[in-house]
Amino acid sequence: MTPRQNRTRAERGIPEATVARLPVYLRALHTLQDRGVATVSSEELASAAGVNSAKLRKDLSHLGSYGTRGVGYEVEYLVYQISRELGLTQDWVVAIIGVGNLGRALAGYGGFASRGFRVAGLLDADEAIVGQQISGMTVEHIDRLEDVIAERGVSIAVIATPAGAAQKVCDRVVASGVTSVLNFAPVVLAVPDGVDVRKVDLSIELQILAFHEQRKAGGPGEHPLAGDGPPGTAQYVEAVQA
Amino acid sequence: MTPRQNRTRAERGIPEATVARLPVYLRALHTLQDRGVATVSSEELASAAGVNSAKLRKDLSHLGSYGTRGVGYEVEYLVYQISRELGLTQDWVVAIIGVGNLGRALAGYGGFASRGFRVAGLLDADEAIVGQQISGMTVEHIDRLEDVIAERGVSIAVIATPAGAAQKVCDRVVASGVTSVLNFAPVVLAVPDGVDVRKVDLSIELQILAFHEQRKAGGPGEHPLAGDGPPGTAQYVEAVQA
DNA sequence: TAGATTGTTAATCGATTAACAATC
DNA sequence: TAGATTGTTAATCGATTAACAATC
């Protein structure tokens, strides 16, 4: 029926799970490079990246045959191949929308520039913030959003606004032609097909940790309330009121 | 061989993919609650959460049978069941280590308190930062880390230090009995079995976006350099130097 | 050649999804 | 009863992993 099912591996490209790990490998390789290491085995690199070596080799095999049997991988060459695959051999122009605490932290984050991400705009709706100097840039008014995107060739928008403002901002950047959005606002953004949204949610990460922490504390199998009755039962009412 | 393979579904508990989505459902339900909605169908809730309805129903079925056929789910009851499953019916004590731009943003983030996460400590190694008031708390010296964890019952550590300091800080919080760590430092932390680490990496998220953005720009199948030769070839040397 | 390590195969596992019987 | 919607089944898809042939 749908062409999706008939696509070959080559057509589908690199698996998403692999793409998500490539930056991790790249970081480990940079660390090795700084230490002057020229060659690394899959076992060593996997250990530095926190994965097992079979997964690492499988991941790298999607890019091509860049290792040497009996020897390992040449660090510099692998750095180049992964960088190229990820699109890091070119610069990407980023705009940060919302210059609160988090936006400021992002504006000052050194990890962006070093990976080819150039922050070319800081925008906010608050008149008290507009005009401030942050990390060597002047915060501009959100009214200028479309102009900034067009004039500076922004291709990635970072949304760090309050939840209530995020969807409107997103609609505007998408209307301006941006198809990659990194969203820090705690809302699910609606976007048309073809637009990629990645979401970073601090509260969600803590909630996932809490789930596991609770399991540890309670011990295995400990879920005495699992059979709770429907609303109206004594158990439920008592628990909700607690 | 290993008991892992013989465990039943009940023993394994709720799938990780489901656990990661429960906080998203919870947020959507809170929004509905604020709007005064009492009952919701899987179709409506799924749409608000950005997933399809089959996945939502499957996820919720892991918690129990909390819906009513022909009707839907009662919002308040589902909020309670998901909260309980995630361990949010109790408070969790959090310490933030590293009070730079990001640490400050985290300290001031309202989304923590509202979900039962209480920030009970801000610690830093920089004498210039220690003693500062941030979001109503006094930053303490990192030397006090073990005392703070023990005295205030910290069960989740948030690491927002520079990369170079993160592993040492992690070792110390783990030695103090903390088994849940949220790591913002761009390093892979080594921890013993039984310790959960979740990682938030801003640079990695941008790199994943760049990968997809590049694919769009280049169009499908456009990878002219895919056949690059090994180190030493003209193509490679030129590209690395660029 | 002997030792080491990659790249690939194949088995397994877990997640997703459509479809529909159960049931309110 | 008729209409609506859940909870579950089963098929499919994608990710992980151990094992090993290929090969440096």
Task: Please outline the helices and strands.
Two copies of one chain form a homodimer.
Chain A: H1 9-12, H2 16-34, E1 39-40, H3 42-49, H4 53-61, E2 67-68, E3 72-74, H5 75-86, E4 92-97, H6 101-107, H7 110-113, E5 117-124, E6 133-134, E7 137-138, E8 140-141, H8 145-152, E9 156-159, H9 163-175, E10 180-183, E11 196-199, H10 202-218, H11 234-241
Parallel strand pairs in A: 4-5, 4-9, 5-8, 9-10, 10-11
Antiparallel strand pairs in A: 1-3, 2-3, 6-7
Helix pairs in contact in A: 2-3, 2-5, 3-4
Chain A binds a DNA duplex (24 and 24 nucleotides) through helix 2, helix 4 and strand 2.
Protein name (chains A, B): Redox-sensing transcriptional repressor Rex
Subunit structure (chains A, B): Homodimer.
Main location (chains A, B): cytoplasm
Explained architecture:
2 copies of one chain form a homodimer. Chain A is globular and about 60 Å long. In chain A, helix 2 crosses helix 3 (42-49) and helix 3 (42-49) crosses helix 4 (53-61). In chain A, the strands form 3 sheets. In chain A, strands 8-5-4-9-10-11 form a 6-stranded parallel β-sheet, sandwiched between helices. The first copy, chain A, has helices at 9-12, 16-34, 42-49, 53-61, 75-86, 101-107, 110-113, 145-152, 163-175, 202-218, 234-241, and strands at residues 39-40, 67-68, 72-74, 92-97, 117-124, 133-134, 137-138, 140-141, 156-159, 180-183, 196-199. Chain A has 242 residues and is α/β, with parallel strands linked by helices. Chain A starts with 8 loop residues before the first helix and ends with a helix. At the A-B interface, helix 2, helix 5, helix 6, strand 10 and helix 10 of A face helix 2, helix 5, helix 6, strand 10 and helix 10 of B. Chain A binds a DNA duplex (24 and 24 nucleotides) through helix 2, helix 4 and strand 2.
